[in-house]
Amino acid sequence: MIKPNLPINPITKCIVSSETSDKILRKLSELNISTVKAFGRMNCDKAIRQHTDLYTIHISEKSLLFAKNICSLQGEIPNSFSGVDIDFPCECKKYPSDVFFNCVVIGNDLICNTKTVHKKVLDYAEDSKLKIINVNQGYAKCNICVVDEDSVITEDCGIASILNKNGYDVLLLKNHCVRLPGYEYGFIGGASGKLAKDKLAFFGCIENHTEFGRIYDFLNRKGIEAVSLSDEPLTDYGSLIPIE
């Protein structure tokens, strides 16, 4: 793994939510990808309590930030990581107190809401010489599907506008077609993650998305294949985070 969220070679390990469906876990296993399950204990809405991107951030080549006080990981983290444990209070009941880790590193950029992300995240970003791009959306990782170092997919107009201004090629989806039990809808970033430089995985069947044609064309221009991890409805589990 050279850069967070941007594997060059096919990955062999990733972090996923403990609520990820058995079908998806079996598919990952068939692809020779082992999973580290995140079990969250934050006192927030039950619908998102197990979301991976609330507790972990792959922030640099060798650093994984992990909220150890309110989450446990079932599985082995690569020895190459110098994991950084950060304690948090469990009383993070609702937005924006539940999004202290919900941000994404793409290339040399950290995309986050600087008002809601934890100060330690900003400190590590500065130490890693990352450019900090501020967005108004606290659920930044949920709302950003990483395609490559210069491209993303999102349903969030504000994120799309800011990233366009920062040189990103952005596919802005018009429809919310991602399932999140307990909510009207989830987000495309929380339903996806890279499996290789040329493969982008989705939690469920991306072909059933109402805008799949636009998604397919966008990915095809980038030389990237869309991989459905099951025949289930596209579901937001809080992102697939590749780590090895």
Folded structure, characterized:
With 244 residues, the chain is α/β, with parallel strands linked by helices. The chain has 4 helices and 16 strands. A 4-stranded mixed β-sheet has the order 5-2-1-16, with helices on one face. Strands 3-4-6 form a 3-stranded mixed β-sheet, with helices on one face. It has a 3-stranded mixed β-sheet with strand order 7-8-9, with helices on one face.
Outline the secondary-structure elements:
Blueprint: E1 13-17, H1 22-30, E2 34-40, E3 56-60, E4 63-66, E5 71-74, E6 84-85, E7 104-106, E8 109-112, H2 119-127, E9 131-134, E10 145-148, E11 151-154, H3 157-165, E12 169-172, E13 192-196, E14 199-202, H4 212-221, E15 225-228, E16 241-242
Task: Give the gist of this structure.
Helices cover 15% and strands 27% of the residues. The chain has a single domain (13-242), classed as 5-stranded Propeller (L-arginine/glycine Amidinotransferase, Chain A). It is of the alpha/beta class and 244 residues long.
Structural key phrases:
alpha/beta, three-stranded mixed β-sheet, single chain, 4 helices, 244 residues
Number of helices: 4
Terminal CA distance: 6 Å
Shape: globular
Main sheet strand line-up: 5-2-1-16
Number of strands: 16
SSE run? EHEEEEEEEHEEEHEEEHEE
Strand content: 25-35%
Could you estimate the helical fraction of the residues in percent?
10-25%
**CATH topology heading:** L-arginine/glycine Amidinotransferase, Chain A
User: What's the pLDDT, averaged over the residues?
Assistant: 92
Largest sheet: 4 strands, mixed
Number of domains: 1
CATH architecture identity: 5-stranded Propeller
Instruction: Please identify the structural class as seen in this structure.
Output: alpha/beta
Give start-end ranges of low-pLDDT stretches.
none
Q: Give me the Rg, rounded.
A: 16 Å
